[in-house]
Amino acid sequence: MDKKKKPSHSALDNSLWAARMLFKYSPAAFFIIILLIPVEIGMQYLGIYLPSLVVSEVTEGQTLEHALMAVGLVMAAMFAGGVLQKVLQYIQSAKIEFYKNRLADIITRKKLSIFYQDYEKKEIRDLASRAERATQMWNYKLPVADIVTNEFGMVKNILGYFLFGAVISFASPWLVPLLTIAPVVNLVAVRAFNKWEYKHRPERADLGRKLGLVEELPDDFASAKDIRIYGMSQWIEERYRELSAQNIMWGKKEAVRKAGSRAADLVVILVRDGGAYALLISMMLKNEISISQFVLYFAAISSFATWVGGIIDCWNKVHSNSLLICDYRDYAYYPDHDGSGAAKAEEHLSSLPEIVFDRVSYRYDGAGEDTIHNLSFTIRRGEKLALIGLNGAGKTTVVKLLCGLYRPTSGEIRINGIPISDFKREDYYRLLSPVFQDVRTAFFSLAETVSGTYTEKTDLDRAEKCIRAAGLGDKIDALPHGINTKLDKRVNKDGTELSGGEAQKLMLARALYKDAPVLVLDEPTAALDPIAESNIYRAYNEMAANKTSLFISHRLASTSFCDRILLLEKGKICEEGTHEELLQRGGKYKEMFEIQSCWYQDQNQDDVSERGGGEK
Known about the structure:
There is one protein chain. The chain is of the alpha/beta class. The two termini are 68 Å apart. The protein is built from 20 helices and ten strands.
């Protein structure tokens, strides 16, 4: 996605969108914002009217009872209005929090569901980070809510502008244009700052992500051993100071530009208010207005300046928040690239699928050539197919294409003769039980991790059976709460930490629990020792008995139980056959197998020597 020179939506469009969202998710907050407009204007008017009333009652010789009654009524109205204003603002704050949480939930769900091929792109992750910022409080500002309050704030200030403008126009019609035109300077300066801030937002977001990742390292339990043993603490500290210095530099640039934009405001105040007050004093000295009128006009001018400043301030804030709303909307409504939905997974869950790669090519964004090029092969119904090759051959890319995480650049993938693009993505995922090489667990229990849902919704007997079948029987027997033991010691007091091999076994148990007709194992034994690996292969044979299976591995000794083997090189199939056929052919597969088998033999000889030495 290219960096945009201009915002994707106008400030007006974003304001209307945010107002619709507020009305949809929190109508009470929407109507309270509208109700506060007359309340706040009325309070402001009573505030300038009261001093004038007091002066008028005194200078015009009214009785004490009359003065107390008149002033008392105004003060009572101000008290009632103040109470109503505070109550409405308190309720509004609570309701807007609910609205904020709903919009934040949309971003979270988007992060969990966005098409994986898009999710891998750095620019999309940066956009997600900026979109998330729109729903977070920054310097007491909440963009998704502030844009609404400020657009209605503009309405309030415009109404106040006309009301108070009518009042001061009785003193002099020249005051209204004088007090209106001068603040345009401030508007231009602030708009220039907002454009600069928007232009540099990608650099700031990128820096913020890097700084955040470095800040998290000392808290990362998995990295703690490496940091200590490899002496990386000083390097991490230096990197943190370097990124912090860059962040401070950007902060200084922002502060200088913001100060420059605000300096114009001081000049505006001097010209605007100084000229208006000079005119009032001149009229007072010439007896053109009374003392009470002077007090009223003086207060009205101060308030009028507030209304004019409020219009400009709300305008600027709407534009400033609009930039973040653009990021929010760009991410929240980013195209999902879903399937057509013409095919239904339900019709294929009870059968052994046939999978066809038909002239499939795939090229990563920015790459000069295809990673997978014109690849064609078939995984027959119930077949166990092994896909092997050196690093960079394209094995994992094939897995991601099969799993629907990537879309082919060209060609087609079919399951039971149906293009996988005909399935809705979420529905298609029901056909697959993958175990990926990269393993990441959270703070849930072992049973919840296997079922992918709450304990109450988990078939605990089935979960335990799958965990034991994956080779974690001894592990759960040793845990205080068995399969209900929570993971991650940082979060759970009685939690446990799994080794890399144990975590992979747990993912294998999850695949068993799902029991989909297509089993995909992407280097599932990479973190296991040879004995555990052998046990997993036996479990894999049992798992794959009634499934169509694709197995990815570097270790060729593990492929002998597969029905057929494909050797991938530079995104193309260079050899195909059974384990015995490929050995007899004497090609690259045999060469790789002999290199690896020699290593295993050397290991076995070392083990024998060590055992012999120990007996002596």
